[in-house]
Design goal:
The complex is a heterodimer of chains A (about 200) and B (about 775). With about 200 residues, chain A is an alpha/beta fold. Chain A has one domain: HUPs (Rossmann fold, 3-Layer(aba) Sandwich), CATH 3.40.50.620. Helices cover about 30% and strands about 25% of the residues of chain A. Chain A is built from five helices and nine strands, in the order βαβαβαβββββαβα. A three-stranded parallel β-sheet of chain A has the order 1-2-9, with helices on both faces. A three-stranded parallel β-sheet of chain A has the order 3-8-4, with helices on one face. A three-stranded antiparallel β-sheet of chain A has the order 5-6-7, with no helix packed on it. In chain A, helix 1 packs across helix 4 and helix 2 crosses helix 3. Chain A is extended and about 70 Å long. The relative contact order of chain A is 0.17. Chain B has about 775 residues and is of the alpha+beta class. In chain B, helix 1 runs parallel beside helix 5, helix 2 crosses helix 5 and helix 2 crosses helix 9. Classes of the chains: A alpha/beta (about 200), B alpha+beta (about 775). At the A-B interface, helix 4 of A face helix 8 of B.
Chain lengths: ~200, ~775
C-alpha cells in the first residue's frame, strides 16, 4: 500500500498517521498552497503514480472536506483511462474484477462490477479505520516518504483553471422554536407547524 | 454584573470554582463573584485525567486529598449534578528498595491519618490488575477508597452548587487590572466594569503569573505540556463487572487507569516541554497541544513493559495540554505576601485531586483567618524573592521528570543553584562543605574530609553523612565550631509603640531591660503557634527580632498585617544587611575573648543577654544563646564585614582547632535538647502549653491567642510534646511517624533523627498526656515497620 498525497509539507504528519495504520511507504508532492485546483491535483497524482509505477487499485476519499469539489477521483480516473466509482461503502475483488457497492438513497444499494485497474472513492463503512498501535507508530517513523515538487513532475501551478476566492463560515441559523402549552397543545401546534409553516407533511 | 462583593475569585477552573462554591457555602453566599475570561474549565481543567487518590508526598497534602474525596462523593446529592465519580482503588508499585522505603513512609504517614492503606505483594497486584506484568516488582501499596472523577462534570457540579447559593459567575469576562484603594478594598477591573471587593483570589491557573503581576507580585508558575493517551476499546475490559484500580508505577514514571471500556496512560517524561514559559497568551482556551511522541516514547515503552497489552492496542487519542508547575510541583495557596486579603490558589499540577479539599480549606482560611490544617507545604509564602521566573524555568526542568521519583528526606537537588550565598561561601567550599538549600540560601549541611562522601546519598536510612555529622557534634561538644546562620530572618521593630505592640503579638513578656533576650512565640487567635521569634531589646523603643529563615515571608507577612495603622511601630527587614555566625562549643568564650575588644566573661556577658560589642574591627550584636545547647554566641554583624569577622574568629580559634559546623549537626543537637523547630513542633495544631516552652506564656498580660489558651487551660490539653529515645537500627524517625501504646495509636512524631552526643535515635512528638511520662514504653513506626 502506497500513500500518495499532494499538499503542503505539513501533510507529512497525516501521511505518518496513515503509515502507522499500515501503509508501506508514501509519496508527497509538495505544494505551496493548501487549496489546489482539482484538475492540477489529479494531474499531479497521475504523474507521481506513473513515475512510481501504476497500481491495480487507487483509493481516494469521496471528496475533500475543505473545498468539497468532488472532482479529483473522476479527473484522475479519466486521465488514466480507468473506471471510477465514488461513495463506495463495500468492496470485494474477484480475479481481475472489483465489485463495489454503494448506497443510492431510499435504502437502495447499487452493485457495480468493473475491471482492474480502477479508482475507488471511499465513504464511511468501506473499512473500519484501525487505531495505530505504539509499535506501529514507531515503525512508521522509519518508513519512506518520497518527496517531490510539482516542477519535478513537469507541472506548473502558476495558472490554475480554478482558484478558491473565499472561504467563510455560513451565518448561524436562528434559534429553535420552542412550543409551549400542554402535551396536547404542543402536539397540535407541532403538526400545524410541520404542515403549514415548514410544509414537510 | 455586581459592582461590590465580599470576594472575587479570578479563574473558572476546578480550583476557582471550588473556592467560590465553598466561600458561598460557608456563609458568604451571594457575596461571591467568579470571573472567567472564557468558559469554565477552558484553561487546564478540561484536559485533566481526573485521578483522585490519597497518596501525597506530605501529611497535610494527604489530608487535602482526603477532603476532596469526601466532597466529591457528596456533590451529586447536594447539587443534582453527577460528577462521574468511580471508586476504583489504587495501587502504587515499587521495583527497588528505595521506593519500598518511600512507600513505607507513606504507609506510616497514612496510618497517622487513619486511612485504609495496605501493603500488597506482586502476586496480589497481578490478581487485581490482569494486564500487569509484575516481574521486577517488590510490592506496592493499595488504597481501596481512591478513584476518579470527570473533571468537567465536577467543575459544573460545584458551579451549580455555587449558583444555587448565589455565587455570580461571569463568563467571558476578562480581568484587566487590579488595585487596592487606600481603604484596603480591592478594585478588580474587567472589560465589563469594575468590582470593589474585600478579598481577591488568584485562581487563574495558566495565567496566574499575569494576574499576580497586576498586583506587583512575581509567582513561580510555568505551564508544561502534560500528555495522556486514551487507547481504543479493549474487549477484556468491556467484559469486566468491576473497575480496574488506578495503577501508578512511579519507577516507570507512568499512571494507568480505566476509562469506560479502555485505558488511559499518563506519563511524566524526562524532558518536559515548557509551554509559553514567558506567559500563556490570554486568548488560549481549551486547545490541544500537538503531542510530541518522540519526547515521551521512553515512558510509553516503559508502560508497555509493565502492561504488555498497551503494545497491542491502538491509540484512540493522544491528549497534550498545558498544566502549571511550580519549582517543587506543590501548588501556591494562601495569603499572598505582603498583600492583605489577596489569596493565591494556583500553581496546581494535580488540581482535580485537590480542588475540593483546597476549596474547603482556603475558604475556611479566608473566613477565619487561619487554615483548619497546617497548609505550609503548599503555602505560596514558602518561596522568597529568589524563586523568580528564571529560577523556576530551570528548577522545573529538573522537577517535572522527577514527579514520580522517589522522595528522600535528605535529598538536595543541584538544579537552579546557587542562589543566595553568604559572603564566606567560597571559604565554606574550600572547607569541603556539602551544601543544603534553605529558602534559596546555600548553607552547609556537613563538612566531610576531602575526597570523602562529598555527595550525600539520598536515603530514608542513615546516609553516608552520618559519621561526619557525628564528628562535627563531637567537635562542638569538646572544642569550638562556627555555624553559619546568615540566612536567619532578621527584623527591626522600632517606634514608641514597639514594646506594647510586640507584647500583644507574643505570649511572652517582651524584655524590660536593654540587652535582654526573650524567646517569644507568636500565636494565632486560638493560641496555636504562628511562629517563634528571638526578641532582643536594643533600647526602650527598638527590638531586634530573629526568626527562622524558611519562614521569613510568612512571619513578616503576619507582622505587616498586624502593624498598627497609627504609625507608632516601624518594621524593617534587615535580613540581607545582617549576617550571623554562631560561635559554639566549650572553647567559644576563649575564642571570642581573644578577638573581642569587650569583656565577654560569664559575669560580664550572661546567658540570655544581648550586647553590642567589637569583635575585631566589626561592630556586632551578639546574643549569648544558641540552638545546639552548648556554650555559644550568635554573632550578628554587618554582612559586608563577614569575611573579616570570619578570619578574625578562625585565627583566634586556630590553636583550639576551630572548624566549620553544618546544619545536620545543629539539627541533631537541637533534637537532643528538645528545642522546637518551626513547622515541625510549632505549627497551627499546637499551642505552647502542650510543649516545653509553656513557660513563655504569660497569662497576666493581654496577647493574641490568650483566649484560646485560657480555653485550653480550662479543658486541659489533649496532647503533649515528648522527647523519645527510639530503639532504631539504621533508620531514624523523621516526623509523621505514628506512635503506638500497644495497639492504640496515641500520637505522631513531629521530627526525629540521631543524637550523636547521646548516641541514640531520638524523636520529638505529640502524644496523649497520660502517656507523656518519663519511662513510658511506646512504639514508633518507621518506614511501615
Amino acid at each position: 500500500m502506497i500513500i500518495v498525497t499532494v499538499g503542503k509539507p505539513e501533510a507529512a504528519a497525516t501521511i505518518r498517521s496513515a503509515l502507522a495504520m499500515g501503509a508501506d511507504r508514501a509519496i508527497l508532492v509538495k505544494t505551496d498552497t493548501q487549496f489546489l485546483d482539482a484538475a492540477l491535483t489529479a494531474k499531479a497524482l497521475k504523474a507521481a503514480m506513473e513515475k512510481d509505477g501504476l497500481p491495480d487499485m487507487i483509493f481516494t476519499g469521496k471528496g475533500s472536506v475543505d473545498t468539497e469539489s468532488f472532482q479529483t477521483q473522476y479527473r484522475l480516473a479519466h486521465a488514466l483511462g480507468m473506471p471510477v466509482v465514488n461513495e463506495v461503502s463495500s468492496l470485494s475483488a474477484d480475479g481481475n474484477k472489483a465489485i463495489a457497492e454503494l448506497e443510492v438513497g431510499g435504502g437502495d444499494k447499487q452493485v457495480i462490477e468493473m475491471n482492474l485497474p480502477c479508482v475507488i472513492g471511499a465513504t464511511k463503512g468501506l473499512n473500519e479505520p484501525r487505531y495505530p498501535k505504539f509499535p506501529d507508530i514507531m515503525k512508521a517513523k522509519k518508513k519512506k516518504i518520497e518527496e517531490m515538487t510539482l516542477a519535478d513532475l513537469g507541472l506548473d501551478a502558476s495558472s490554475p483553471g480554478v482558484t478558491l476566492e473565499k472561504l467563510e463560515p455560513v451565518p448561524e441559523r436562528t434559534g429553535a422554536k420552542m412550543i409551549q402549552g400542554s402535551v396536547e397543545e404542543q402536539v397540535t401546534e407541532l403538526i400545524r407547524v410541520l404542515k403549514e409553516d415548514e410544509k414537510v407533511l | 454584573m455586581k459592582t461590590n462583593a465580599r470576594a472575587v475569585v479570578i479563574g473558572g477552573g476546578a480550583i476557582g470554582v471550588s473556592v467560590a462554591y465553598h466561600l458561598a457555602k460557608y456563609g458568604w453566599k451571594d457575596d461571591v463573584v467568579l470571573l472567567e475570561k472564557h468558559e469554565l474549565t477552558s484553561g487546564s481543567t478540561w484536559m485533566a485525567a481526573g485521578n483522585v487518590s490519597f497518596f501525597h508526598g506530605n501529611y497535610y497534602g494527604t489530608q487535602v486529598n482526603k477532603k476532596s474525596i469526601e466532597i466529591y462523593k457528596g456533590l451529586e446529592k447536594e447539587t443534582g449534578q453527577p460528577v462521574g465519580w468511580h471508586t476504583t482503588g489504587s495501587i502504587r508499585t515499587a521495583d527497588n528498595p528505595g521506593r519500598m522505603d518511600e512507600l513505607g513512609y507513606a504507609y506510616s504517614m497514612n496510618r497517622c491519618l487513619g486511612l485504609d492503606v495496605s501493603y500488597i505483594t506482586p502476586d496480589e497486584i497481578g490478581k487485581m490488575h490482569p494486564f500487569i506484568q509484575t516481574e521486577g516488582l517488590l510490592g506496592g501499596l493499595y488504597w481501596p477508597d481512591d478513584g476518579d472523577v470527570d473533571p468537567n462534570s465536577l467543575t459544573q457540579a460545584m458551579a451549580k452548587g455555587g449558583r444555587k447559593l448565589g455565587v455570580e459567575f461571569n463568563l467571558h469576562t476578562m480581568v484587566t487590572g487590579i488595585y487596592q484603594k487606600s481603604s484596603g478594598e480591592w478594585v478588580v477591573e474587567t472589560d465589563k466594569g469594575d468590582i470593589i471587593c474585600e478579598n481577591v483570589v488568584n485562581a487563574a491557573g495558566l495565567w496566574a503569573p499575569e494576574v499576580a503581576r497586576m498586583v506587583g507580585l512575581e509567582i513561580p508558575s510555568i505551564s508544561i505540556a502534560h500528555t495522556h493517551i486514551l487507547y481504543e476499546s479493549i474487549q477484556e475490559i468491556a467484559d469486566r463487572d468491576t473497575y480496574l484500580p488506578l495503577m501508578r508505577d512511579p519507577d516507570k514514571s507512568i499512571y494507568l487507569r480505566q476509562e469506560m471500556d479502555s485505558l488511559i496512560l499518563g506519563l511524566y517524561e524526562a524532558n518536559g516541554q515548557q509551554w509559553y514559559k514567558n506567559g500563556v497568551p490570554w486568548d488560549y482556551a481549551q486547545e490541544e497541544i500537538n503531542p510530541d511522541l518522540d519526547n515521551i516514547s521512553d515512558c510509553i515503552e516503559g508502560g508497555i513493559e509493565r502492561f504488555p497489552i498497551l503494545g497491542e492496542t491502538g491509540f484512540k487519542h493522544v491528549t497534550a495540554g498545558p498544566i502549571t508547575y511550580t519549582p517543587n510541583a506543590e501548588p501556591l495557596v494562601g495569603p499572598a505576601a505582603p498583600l492583605k486579603n489577596f489569596y493565591n490558589a494556583c500553581g496546581y499540577s494535580f488540581g482535580i485531586t485537590q480542588a475540593g479539599g483546597i476549596g474547603h480549606y482556603l475558604a475556611g482560611w479566608m473566613m477565619n483567618g487561619e487554615p483548619e490544617i497546617d497548609l505550609w507545604p503548599m503555602d505560596s509564602r514558602r518561596y522568597g524573592s529568589y524563586a523568580n521566573w528564571a529560577y523556576n524555568t530551570e528548577k522545573i526542568a529538573d522537577t517535572y521528570p522527577r514527579l514520580y521519583s522517589t522522595i528522600y528526606p535528605n535529598e538536595v537537588r543541584p538544579a537552579a543553584r546557587p542562589n543566595r550565598t553568604s559572603p564566606i561561601y567560597e571559604y565554606q567550599k574550600q572547607a569541603n562543605a556539602v551544601f543544603g538549600d534553605y529558602y534559596g540560601w546555600e548553607c552547609p549541611n556537613y563538612f566531610p574530609p576531602k575526597g570523602e562522601d562529598e555527595y550525600e546519598e539520598p536515603s530514608w536510612r542513615r546516609s553516608n553523612a552520618f559519621k561526619h555529622v557525628g564528628a562535627e557534634c563531637k567537635h562542638v561538644m569538646e572544642k569550638v565550631g562556627i555555624i553559619d546562620l546568615t540566612r536567619f530572618a532578621k527584623t527591626k521593630i522600632a517606634g514608641p509603640g514597639a514594646k506594647d505592640w510586640l507584647n500583644k503579638m507574643t505570649c511572652q513578656r517582651v524584655p524590660e531591660k536593654d540587652g535582654r533576650i526573650a524567646l517569644s512565640p507568636m500565636l494565632d487567635h486560638s493560641g496555636n503557634f504562628k511562629t517563634d521569634m528571638t526578641v532582643s531589646r536594643v533600647n526602650e523603643n527598638e527590638f531586634f527580632c530573629v526568626t527562622a529563615s524558611v519562614g521569613k515571608k510568612h512571619d513578616q507577612h503576619w507582622m505587616i498585617e498586624n502593624l498598627p495603622k497609627d504609625g507608632s511601630v516601624g518594621m524593617e527587614d534587615i535580613t540581607y544587611q545582617v549576617g550571623c555566625l554562631v560561635l559554639v562549643g566549650p572553647k567559644s568564650r576563649d575564642v571570642l575573648a581573644k578577638v573581642a575588644y569587650d569583656d565577654v566573661s560569664n559575669e560580664a556577658f550572661k546567658f540570655g543577654t544581648s550586647r553590642e560589642i567589637y569583635v575585631g574591627r566589626t561592630k556586632c550584636r551578639v546574643n549569648r544563646m544558641n540552638y545546639v545547647g552548648e556554650l555559644g554566641f550568635e554573632i550578628f554583624h554587618p554582612i559586608q564585614h563577614q569575611i573579616t569577622l570570619y578570619h578574625d574568629l578562625m585565627n583566634a580559634g586556630a590553636d583550639v582547632d576551630i572548624r566549620l559546623i553544618g546544619m545536620h549537626a545543629m539539627d541533631s543537637m537541637r533534637l537532643e535538647k528538645g528545642y522546637l523547630a518551626w513547622k515541625s513542633e510549632m505549627n497551627v495544631h499546637h499551642t505552647p502549653l502542650e510543649t516545653n516552652v509553656a513557660w513563655t506564656v504569660k497569662m497576666d498580660k493581654e496577647f493574641n491567642g490568650k483566649k484560646g489558651l485560657e480555653k485550653q487551660k480550662e479543658k486541659g490539653i489533649a496532647q503533649k510534646l515528648v522527647c523519645m529515645v527510639v530503639d532504631a537500627t539504621d533508620s531514624d524517625p523523621f516526623g509523621y511517624n505514628p506512635i503506638f501504646a500497644g495497639e492504640e495509636r496515641i500520637g505522631m512524631t513531629s521530627s526525629g533523627g540521631y543524637g550523636h552526643r547521646v548516641e541514640k535515635s531520638i524523636a520529638l512528638g505529640y502524644v496523649k498526656p497520660e502517656f507523656a511520662k518519663a519511662g513510658t514504653r511506646l512504639e514508633v513506626e518507621i518506614l511501615g515497620r
